[in-house]
Amino acid sequence: METIKNLKKYMEAILVIVSYLIGSIPTAVWISKKKFGIDIREYGSGNAGATNTFRVLGKQWGIIVLLIDLIKGVIATSLYVFMPFYLSPDHEIARVNFMIILGLTAVLGHVFPIWANFKGGKGVATLFGMAIAIQPLVAICCVGVFIVFLYMTRFVSLSSILASISFMLFVVFIFDEKEFLYRAFAIFVCVLICFTHQKNIVKLLQGKESKAGIMKFRDEVKKNKK
Question: b/e string for 109-127 if b means 16 or more Cβ within 10 A?
């Protein structure tokens, strides 16, 4: 019995490390260096995430980075399948708790990537990938909030902040999830996203925040109507 417990601990540790390494894949950095011969962290906001990729490299590469960073979160969080939680009497709680640990480790890797001198992005896309793996319905609702506000404002930062706030509201109040760690995680995500977007919030208040080119067609439609 003791041997099984030790094996379980070793497996959990290995999966957490793998999750961090997956999250550490610096998509924006590698693409900017490989395709354009630059380090994206030296341009725009200096951030190695999808938002700055949209701003510096354009819509096509921004979408690619966004999708890959999101998939990182899904894959890393889904590593729980290698653990036999069905052997535990409270296997559902254990499964969700371990998924949260794996997901947060991937986000940590994205923010502090070992493959890019520990200077990465803000982790929004990876967080949403994590949410998709844990609770797809909540994640879809949050993506809907993100898209609506992105269409209305063209501010990726504002849309991300509002989506993270909606994530907390969906988990804690609307869907009323009972698992304590999941509720705490939702609150943590909201606080984390707001914290990592401090500079963006200041720019939004000052009217200096850059708009994403991805929704320019919306402005063109408005101009044509006038």
Answer: bbbbbeebeeebbbbbbbb
